[in-house]
Amino acid sequence: MDQANPLPTYRREMRAGLRDIAPIVVAAIPIGLLFGAVAAAKGMSTLEVMLMSALVFAGGAQFAAIETWIHPAPIATLAFATLLINARHVLMGASLTPKIRMSRVQTFLGFFFLTDEAWALSERRAMERPVTGAYWFVMAVVLWANWTLSSTLGAVLGLFLGDPERIGADFAFTALFIGLVAGFGRSRVTLVTVAVSAGVAALVHLFIGAPWHVASGALAGIAAAYLAAPKEARS
User: Fold this and answer.
1) Which of 34, 116, 130, 178 lies most in the core, judged by the most C-beta atoms within 10 Å?
2) Cβ–Cβ under 8 Å, residues 170 and 53
3) Distance of CA 67 to the CA centre of its chain
4) pLDDT, averaged across the chain
5) What is the rounded CA–CA span in Å between residue 223 and residue 102?
């Protein structure tokens, strides 16, 4: 226990995790509600929405899956698209692992809850001190519970509200991603990557249809980023 602070270390770390994740939890609630409503409009039951959010816990991949949802569901295609969307987690995990004070088993368990937000907050905290298990699990599990509960509530409300497309709510997550992309900067590589990925996805959706446009746009963006990068960055 730190004599300057009477609280035990683990309790201080838990409080720090709750403090840091609180603003993100509030911002994630309307997105979770929207996902639940859109999923319900696609024909998923409330239980299915709850299980998907609890077991998959990947907002971008879940929205992509719902966007391309048809009957019967193309399992292989959905799995491939999800793999591409979440491939960044490999790099995020590799970056964060040396900075976390957890056993290997705890790390494997803890990284189930890995999200962009949890990674960014942990990287910021690691600039000042190692990231403890108490900090990570409180922050990550609270965000997981918030996403699961808000999306489940959204599914319940969606059963009464009907199709979100009637009021344009289905575009909210797309608008969020546009805002995120706009914040990446205006470098040549970024502009080329976004333009090529969007163009290919639009063309594939127009001429072939869902769900192939998701994987096609992702692969085209990866190839464009590699080709547009300076030669020294590729070597």
Assistant:
1) 34
2) no
3) 15
4) 80
5) 36
Contact (Cβ atoms closer than 8 angstroms) between residue 20 and residue 121: yes
Query: Residues with Cβ < 8 Å from 225, sequence gap 6 or more?
Result: 189, 192, 193
CB of 115 within 8 A of CB of 86?
A: no
Compute CA distances 49 → 38, 42, 83, 160, 224, whole Å. 10, 11, 20, 16, 35
CA distances in angstroms from 43 to 70, 99, 163, 164, 182, listed in the order given: 10, 42, 10, 13, 33
Show Cβ contacts of residue 114 under 8 Å, excluding neighbours closer than 6 positions. 89, 92, 93, 96, 140
**Separation CA 202–CA 153 (nearest Å):** 32
pLDDT digits (tens, 9 = 90+) for 33-60: 888 988 888 888 899 999 999 999 988 7
Element (H, E) at 10: helix 9-41
Report H helices in 58-211.
Answer: 59-67, 75-85, 88-96, 104-110, 116-126, 133-161, 172-182, 188-207
Residue keyed to tokens 């509600």: 33
More confident residue, 185 or 94: 94
Q: What is the CA radius of gyration of the chain?
A: 20
Q: Is 188 helix (H, G, I), strand (E, B) or coil?
A: helix
